[in-house]
Amino acid sequence: MGLFDLFSKKKADAPKASGRDTERLGRLVANKFSQNLDRQDAIEQLSRMSTKDSAAALLKRFDWQLDPSITDQEEKENCLRGIVAVGQDALGPVRNYAKKAESLMWPLRVLKNIVSGQELTDELLSMLDQFDTEYTRNVEPKLQLITELAEHKTDEVRAALEPFLEDASEPVRFAAVTSVFAIGNPDSLPALIAALEQEESLRVKNRIAEGLSQKGWELPEALLPVAAKGLPGNYRVQGNKVQPG
């Protein structure tokens, strides 16, 4: 029986394990230098437990990478399935893990397999709340959340993303601009023009100008002078819209 088949078994059939068992197996999963077969067996046992604690233990496998990459991918996919099998009970461990994670790629995949719709949006916004716009050593989690939220086209998401148009990190600002335009609400015009006015990165300026031109949004009269001054040289204000040229 394969690992995936085990996930379809009822929780009543899951092995009863003590906290000590879960900790021991979790240490194997978290240790990059554990033997492959031992670690993979630990992943299988934890997946069969299907508990909140087993989900927390499996999440630790997302902390590191293994060569060859195909083995790394397979182990992480198996951990993902084991966590998802826990269902809503896994959300608490996922939230706790995300607070300290160097990357949110796998936790986000877990979330999207457990919740959807407004519940997923709420989870993503809650994660984004832990970040501000100040300097941070590792911007990857922030970038991943901002990019993911582009798929959630609500006014609440728009309002949550706009402050990151002024983030200390240029890649974060670029991602925020891209996501704001993906949401496509012209109520973002004041925030975008304000960002354009103070932006130093030509890449971000061009992304804002390109988005304004593509959307064809009409600029309020009060924003026209600010926009005209902030646009890069390959864009201009014509009438009350931004045009290339």
Question: What does this molecule look like?
Answer:
By secondary structure, the chain is mainly alpha-helical. The protein folds into two domains: 1-90, no CATH class; 115-245, Leucine-rich Repeat Variant (Alpha Horseshoe), CATH 1.25.10. Helices cover 60% and strands 3% of the residues. The protein contains 14 helices and two strands. The chain has a two-stranded antiparallel ribbon. Strand 1 and strand 2 (241-244) form a beta hairpin. Helix 3 packs antiparallel against helix 4 and helix 9 packs parallel to helix 11. The termini are far apart. Residues 6-12 have low confidence and may be disordered.
Summarize the structure.
The protein has 14 helices and two strands, in the order H-H-H-H-H-H-H-H-H-H-H-H-H-H-E-E. The protein has 245 residues and is mainly alpha-helical. Helix 4 (52-59) runs parallel beside helix 6 and helix 5 runs parallel beside helix 7.
